[in-house]
Amino acid sequence: MPTQPRQRAPWGPMPPAPRPRKGFLDVLRSITAGLVLAFAGSRANVARTILSCAGIVIGIGALITVVTVGDVGERYARAYSEAVAGRAATLQVDLMVRPGNLEAFEADLLRAGGSAVSLNTWLGGPLIRSAGTTLPEASITAVDASLSDIRRLEMVRGRWFAEQDRASLVPMLVVNEELADILGDGTDVQIGSRRWLDARVVGVVKSNAFSSYPQAYLLRAPASAELLSSSEEDMQSYSVLLPPDDADPEAFLARLESAAWRWDLSASSVREAVSVWRSDDAAEVQEILDYLSLGLLGVASITLLTGLLGVLNVGLVTVRERRRELATYRALGASSLTLFVAVVTEAVVVSVVAGAIALTLCLAGAWGVDLLASPYLPSDVSVSVPPEAALVGLSGAAFVGLLAGVIPAWRALRASVVAGLRE
């Protein structure tokens, strides 16, 4: 006869019920409940929220300021370098011996890789006279209209030279602000070396730290040929704009050497007659800005770390003070995920709010600084918070809040529910 299976005694221990597996909706419900608890806790504890915000506001404000200062400094340094020495990359070609075929030499400057070429030679012979008074302190530089493609020239009044100005019957001048103040309305201006010639001032260019003395640019044209010929024995210089990735002076000079037979050069060697060197400061300026940004970033990181420790400390104290509240939530059925999300989200919310406050203060500060500094900055350089600074600030605030909320949340989950309810 088959044996019957043994029946479990009614008083025997029952097997544990299987734990129900959480589905996606359960997890989503826990996260939503945690978010609701986090916002409720932030509103209920305004003093604690403000205390947590203080350190983050300073840290995020410092971080946004660092990015903003780096951005403004880079744009200002680039504009200043382009105004003084030329855009990246500008080579200066000094011609010590005048060749027989100067036109061929200038054409070869373009063939060797230059995208723009301009005469840029200081003239020691001619003088400027205004209303019968000679101005010996005024410096005169002979240029071509293409210099505006090589250097940043910010016009205060009037305009820069155009190619059609070469057909003018009188020498054409562009002066800086210092010389314009001396010349007055600029209607009675003469220039000359052997004899005086009536000149026309077509524009006033903004001065910089390296041109704070009276300075004039003379357009090379048939009307000014007599003035340029008075300085034939002097060294002649050219500014040549090249692509930044092909701006090696030695390679450029080597390409020029291959065409030297066209110039009718009297010197025994091209290198004795031609000197090439890079005049713009783009690489040096970028290196200085990189070091400055690293230093400011270090200061901002230390400040942000201090704010993180402040939020972390406040979070730990908050969890300790809210043990009874959190234990009650656990006793009423709140899951561990719900409480974890609630504590972490509260820290993130506080940090993001502090980041928004810091961003608002930085925007207002940049606006005020721009009002004060705009007279001393180039027209296309303004003090403003760039979008990347706002993005870095807010994302940094959220990340700091996340780090500062994980440890208090972990401690909240480890706390005993019974001990919490007994308090």
List keywords for this structure.
single chain; four-stranded antiparallel beta sheet; 13 strands; alpha+beta; 423 residues
Estimated structural class: alpha+beta
β-strand percent reads 15-25%
Intertermini distance = 64 Å
Largest sheet: 9 strands, mixed
Number of helices: 13
* Overall pLDDT: 80
Overall, the morphology is: elongated
Please tally the β strands and state the result: 13
Output the radius of gyration.
Answer: 37 Å
Read across the widest sheet, the strand sequence of neighbours is 6-10-7-11-5-2-12-1-13
| Assembly state of the chains shown | single chain
* Uncertain parts: none
Question: What does this entry show, briefly?
Answer:
The protein is of the alpha+beta class and 423 residues long.
Write the SSE topology.
Layout (H helix, E strand, L loop, with lengths): L23 H21 L1 H39 L5 E6 L6 H10 L4 E8 L3 E4 L2 E3 L3 E5 L3 H4 L4 E4 L13 E5 H7 L5 E4 L3 E3 L1 E6 L9 E5 L5 H5 L6 E6 L7 H9 L12 H4 E5 L3 H40 L1 H9 L4 H38 L13 H28 L2 H6 L1
Parallel strand pairs: 5-11, 7-10
Antiparallel strand pairs: 1-12, 1-13, 2-5, 2-12, 3-4, 3-8, 6-10, 7-11, 8-9
Helix pairs in contact: 1-11, 2-9, 2-11, 2-12, 9-12, 11-12
Describe the structure.
This protein is of the alpha+beta class. Helices cover 52% and strands 15% of the residues. The chain is built from 13 helices and 13 strands. The protein has helices at residues 24-44, 46-84, 102-111, 147-150, 177-183, 225-229, 249-257, 270-273, 282-321, 323-331, 336-373, 387-414, 417-422, and strands spanning 90-95, 116-123, 127-130, 133-135, 139-143, 155-158, 172-176, 189-192, 196-198, 200-205, 215-219, 236-241, 274-278. Strands 6-10-7-11-5-2-12-1-13 form a 9-stranded mixed sheet. A hairpin with a 2-residue loop joins strand 3 and strand 4.
